[in-house]
Amino acid sequence: MAALSTDAADAWLAETRVMRLASHLLPSMAASLSAHGGVPEIAAARDAERTVPPRRDARGRALSRWDQPMALAWPARRVWNAAAEDDFARFVTAIGRGVTEGRCGHLDECLASPVVNPLVDDDEMRLRMLPDCADVAYVLRAYFAFKRQLPFGFVAAMGGEGGDPRYLHTGRPVLWRQWTDFRSPRALFDEMRSYVHSGMFRLSPKLEDGDTYAARIDRASVRPGAVYYDTDGHVLVVTEVLPTGDVQFIDGHPGGSLTHPRFHAPAQTPPGSPSWGGGFRRWRPQRLDAQGVIVRARNAELTDFAPFAQYDRRNWRVAGDPAPYDVWVRDALRFSAR
């Protein structure tokens, strides 16, 4: 999968916002843009949604899609493929820029803003939540899946040795939920935060039933939407990789605020051992089986799966000399951009 350049991300964001405006003001304009290589999936999704009669409340008012039964509100009409992952990366870049440029400071504020979020529509709902670091990563993935009608599932509980589920020594997923388990999209976003935490990222590379996997260190893998898991129990979401090799993150805090740190030492510690699963991780692609149950891609299907590269200090070299982990990462990302 090719890395996304900054120029490509800028073009996609501008084009998406034009499509959204066109669909509101003049449907024929949106159709024309799609016919000429615009953003056809956005217009097609809206057309598909209009074919489903909305549910109404006791007074006959149409319910928001956020409150519609899940089968109506969030059908899995699309699949997670390279194009979907590219669009997810661009979406996360847009949210990240909203934070770094000071246009929003809380996740629900960012998602509700038509200036920041390219996927906003007339039926947008303020999520009214206070996400911490792990919540931010999961909410962004789930929100994109909802808007693009993609399947979405998540690990709902971890088992292993130790009392605190965030710091298990041999953590493994023991419970899974998927979007169809919830009454409505609103219910999923309200309830998911009570399940997920940073321990969901504390996984040995050999485990294939988690939500993320250890990724190769290059610009095609360390891309917007990926996460950095600090084994001290913190999760950062990658929003951009700059030409210098610097990684821009957004970071969620218990009070609900978002900050925008960059990757540097000592704030980002080395990733620890493989059994702890630290370092850069990507979302494991999901698909549905014949029974409509989420199936996660296996390690053998992942072209950038790198189970031990980040944990082997012999790899941490710059110009042939040993280097700290963050310096090695920055150099690898800068070098692979050439």
Explained architecture:
The protein is of the alpha+beta class. The protein has one domain (64-335). The protein is built from 9 helices and 12 strands. Helix 1 (6-25) packs antiparallel against helix 2 and helix 1 (6-25) crosses helix 5 (82-100). The longest helix has 20 residues, at 6-25. The chain is globular, with a radius of gyration of 20 Å. Mean pLDDT is 85; it is low at 18-51.
Secondary-structure element string: HHHHHHHEEHEEEEEEEEEEH
Helical fraction: 25-40%
Measured between the Cα atoms of the first and last residue, the distance is: 16 Å
**Low-pLDDT segments, ≥5 res:** 18-51
The averaged pLDDT comes out at: 85
Strand order within the widest sheet?
3-8-4-5-6-7
* Radius of gyration using CA atoms only: 20 Å
* Helix/strand/pairing category: alpha+beta
Note the beta-strand portion: 15-25%
How many beta strands in the DSSP annotation?
12
How many alpha or pi helices? 9
Shape: globular
The domain count comes to 1
Please outline the major beta sheet. 6 strands, antiparallel
Provide a short characterization of the protein structure.
The protein has 338 residues and is of the alpha+beta class.
Q: What labels would you give this structure?
A:
single chain; 338 residues; alpha+beta; 6-stranded antiparallel β-sheet; two-stranded antiparallel ribbon; 9 helices
